[in-house]
Specification:
Blueprint lengths: L12 H20 L4 H8 L2 H29 L25
Length: 100
C-alpha cells in the first residue's frame, strides 16, 4: 500500500458539532429575545440593513484576500520555477497507403 507523506487530515466531526451547537444556541437566544420572522422581515425592509447584509460579507472577503496576499508576500521568496521537461522531437511524418 502506498504511504502518503502528507499529514493526516483533521477530523471535521468536531467542527460540525461545534457549529451545530452554536447555531442552535443562537436560534434559541433569538427566540427568547422575541425576534420572530415578522420582526426580522420588518428589519430587512430598512435600507441600512440591506446595505449591511451586502457589505459585511464583501468586506470580510476583501480582508481575507488581503490577509492571504500579505501572508504569501511576507513568507519570503517564491520557489524557483521548475525547468520544463524536454519534449521528444516529433518524428517526420510520412503518408501511408491512401493518404496524401
Amino acid at each position: 500500500m502506498h504511504k502518503s507523506t502528507s499529514p493526516r487530515r483533521k477530523s471535521f466531526k468536531r467542527f460540525a458539532i461545534a457549529t451545530t451547537l452554536l447555531l442552535s444556541g443562537g436560534a434559541a437566544a433569538a427566540l427568547m429575545a422575541g425576534v420572530t420572522p415578522a420582526t426580522a422581515a420588518n428589519l430587512a425592509a430598512q435600507p441600512d440593513a440591506q446595505i449591511a447584509v451586502f457589505m459585511v460579507p464583501l468586506t470580510i472577503l476583501v480582508v481575507a484576500v488581503l490577509y492571504e496576499v500579505a501572508r504569501i508576500a511576507l513568507r519570503g521568496t517564491l520557489p524557483d520555477e521548475t525547468t520544463p521537461t524536454r519534449r521528444r522531437p516529433l518524428r517526420h511524418w510520412s503518408p501511408v497507403q491512401r493518404e496524401g
